[in-house]
Amino acid sequence: MCPKLCFEFKTRTFAQNFSVVLIKCKQVFAALFFVLAGFSASASEGHEHESGEKKGFNASEVIFGHIGDNHDWHLFDLNGHPVSIPLPVIIYHPEKGLSVFSSKNFEHGHASYEGYRLNEKNKVVSEDGAAIKDLSITKNVASMLISVVLLLLIMISVANKYKKNGVMKAPSGFQNALEPVIMFVRDEVAKPNLGHKYMRYMPLLLTVFFFIWINNLLGLLPGGANFTGNIAVTGALSLISFIVIIFSGNKHFWGHLFNPPGVPLGIKFLLVPIEIISLFIKPIALMIRLFANILAGHIIILSVVSMIFIFGALSKFAGWGFVPVSLAFSVFMFFLELLVAAIQAFIFTNLTAVFIGQAVEEAHHHDHEHEKYHAHNPETGQEYNVSDNTIVA
Amino acid sequence: MRPTQRAEGAINTYKNQLLKLHNYFSMDLLIPDFGLFFWTLLAFLLVLFILKKFAWKPIVNMLQERETGIANSIAAAEKVKEEMKQMQAQNETLLIQAREERTAMLKEAKETKDKMINEAKDQAKVEANRIMDDTRAQIERQKNAALTEVKNEIGKLAVEVAEKILRKQLASQEAQTDYVKMLADEIKLN
């Protein structure tokens, strides 16, 4: 049998193919072409595992391995051994205190170290069963740190270019690429929602936008972490949004929340709880929207690629036959995810701006007509008020 | 294995995996990890404050400055253009005025010239007339004076002659009478 054509679709072989591919290519949409290259590279290695236990390709293991968090950054498997970058484990034990060590001490979950070990979900647990706090630099944290360094480098260099070139010189290079994005956040997100107070919130909105965007893009890179598709991450981001909303709220905002004017007392008992719930629903919606969108994108791409190996497990012809379909699908999904990366960053930023805008909105001029509907003409920028009655009628 | 059985097997595998996916979702994915939450919060806030100070403030301020700068420049250019237009209009009116003035001046000069010539002519005429009159009067006077002088001279000469003659010839009566007669005739002849 020709070694180039014969390959066994096993977990490790797949992981090997996939990870070699993922780590190799620099550009997102190039990834899928390398999958093909990976096949031929792995073909010869497939023989070596033939003697090992026959095990079907487990897509969910692969997918969860990617979308979940890990204590080491897995690159690829070599001769059945995973090759990965160990990351620092930081554990706070209520009795033993803080302990910091490399994750390679766990030997990929096969060994325990200083009374800690990895459980079947790749989480660190204490062997004495104590409730420990895991502050490890996991794969997601490491990915985030990379993004933070990139973000600081890019933005500060761009800012320095502005300082160096002065105000009236045309932007160039990266500065030119970022300027329209910054202008977009200012003119399409901050100004329409926040009015004349927009300058105060510009740093927050810009940071949120670029932080999410760059992490979305890093997540799309082969071998990248599923950072923005993690609920802890989106939770932290929306917590910040929530705190800003709460602290931006003016008298008018809180007044309408706890004592809606022009509403009968009986309705108030109904309305106030709803309003309070909606206050908390807003950041929760932010959290789930970003998390679900990015996670779904990652799962779809991985599932589409996994199809090749699932079909390949049945017969190699089915596997090869499915390659074009799978490839076309995943290229399409990658492009879609590139778009989604920017769109979700924009939506998170825009909704944050909308919610802050609601919190800082000033009282209307006619106090007796409190319940007004704000309509906004996007073309003329003209704002006009429509009373509730006309809307209902 | 027949192909249909194989396909069924594949579908079953896929089903199982979907089930696992479902289990995974319902458990782990929705529970936020404390460590990641903590680090994200910390890193984001750090990034926010560093970028706020070193990137966003300068960039946003510069952008705004540039916008106002461009707006000002455009406004200034517009103003200059407007001024130029005004100046041009002014120049044109000035030119027209100057042209009109020149025509008027030329006309005036011509009039003055004509007037001066006429005046000079008139004056010359008057003067000439006066001189002629004077000359004529003087001639008349000199003529009269000369005539008088001549008459006086003649008279004197006549008296002298008469005297001489009288002295010599008026000794006789006859001679006297002849002489008188002759004188009288002479006067008559004159």
Notes on the protein architecture:
- The complex is a heterodimer of chains A (393) and B (190).
- Chain A has helices at 11-24, 31-49, 59-67, 139-165, 174-194, 198-220, 231-248, 251-258, 265-314, 316-360, 388-392, and strands at 72-78, 81-86, 88-93, 97-102, 116-118, 124-126, 133-134, 372-376, 383-387.
- Chain A is mostly helical and 393 residues long.
- In chain A, helix 3 (59-67) crosses helix 9 and helix 5 packs across helix 10.
- Chain A is globular.
- Residues 1-54 and 366-393 of chain A have low confidence and may be disordered.
- The longest helix of chain B has 136 residues, at 34-169.
- Chain B has one domain (37-189).
- Chain B starts with a helix and ends with a helix.
- Chain B is rod-shaped.
- Chain B has three helices and no strands.
- Chain A: Residues 367-393 are annotated as: Disordered.
- Chain A: One of its GO terms (molecular function) is proton-transporting ATP synthase activity, rotational mechanism.
- Chain A: The chain crosses the membrane at residues 141-159, 201-221, 227-248, 269-288, 294-314, 326-348.
- Chain A: Belongs to the ATPase A chain family.
